[in-house]
Amino acid sequence: MTKQEMLYEQYNDALFRLLMHSVAQHQGQQYQEENQALKAQEGGPSETAKRRCLRTISRQVRRGHARAAARTASRVLSKAAVVMLLVISCLTAAFAVSPVFRSDALRWAVATFGDHAEYRFNQTEGGVQYQGIEVGWLPEGYELVENQNTNGTISRRYIRPSGSVEQRVDIRVMNFDGEGVFKVDTEANQLYQTIVHDTLATVIQRDESMQIIWMYPESNCIVMLCGDNISTETALRIAQSIVLS
């Protein structure tokens, strides 16, 4: 590639990012206005309907609709960043089914940029306060070796020796105020979404390590579970057992 071609490619990438930033700002303003209108409405679907909505979204994501959309966008945009990889199909399905879920979902969104994902969130006014976490289930043999609670972040580490391989589980709960962005490395062997505690969670697998990230919008926090040398089923079961206290 000549220097001129490289500069032209960099120019196109920069222009695309600026355009996407402008689009995101415009859509974000629309979403905020719609969210405020939805908050003023009374009533809404039952908890059962919300759970059914989330299960529908999860099935659609698992069928690969989001990945297909990402591949199509990647072909069109060449090496430019692929924005809104997973959240587009999820929010589209959710908006059509449940106004209540729409109100909840607009507090946060996920955007992907090739090598990382960004969780963008807005603080929930009068959110549910929490002081700690409870882990309801761990495989036999795990020991708590680290337990910290500082500056709105709760960190726990559990370890289980297994021959020459150490199995490790790290759990981190991070509080947020106002609006913000939380970045996650997404260079992985597998990347998909599932449901944890009735909310969408991102699962990232690379070699023998994995991460599960989800949010509690009503408590203004992000939860991250990191595991080494454990199965996906084990990690998801641990995640489902985590409760804010």
* Biggest beta sheet attributes: 7 strands, antiparallel
What separation lies between the terminal Cα atoms?
A: 56 Å
> How many extended strands?
12
Low-confidence stretches: 68-106
Strand order of the largest sheet: 4-5-6-11-10-9-8
List the total number of helices. Answer: 6
Overall pLDDT, averaged? Answer: 68
Radius of gyration: 20 Å
**What is the helix fraction of residues, given as a range?**
25-40%
Q: What is the percentage of strand-forming residues?
A: 25-35%
The helix/strand order is HHHHHEEEEEEEEEEEHE
Number of domains: 2
Shape, per Cα inertia axes: globular
**Which structural class do you get from the secondary structure elements?**
alpha+beta
Tell me what the structure shows.
The chain is of the alpha+beta class and 245 residues long. It folds into 2 domains: 104 residues, no CATH class; 102 residues, Mog1/PsbP, alpha/beta/alpha sandwich (Protein Transport Mog1p, Chain A), CATH 3.40.1000.10. The chain has 6 helices and 12 strands. The strands form 3 sheets. Strands 4-5-6-11-10-9-8 form a 7-stranded antiparallel β-sheet. Strands 1-2-7 form a 3-stranded antiparallel β-sheet, with no helix packed on it. A two-stranded antiparallel ribbon has the order 3-12. The protein is globular, with a radius of gyration of 20 Å. The protein starts with a helix and ends with a strand. About 16% of the residues have low confidence.
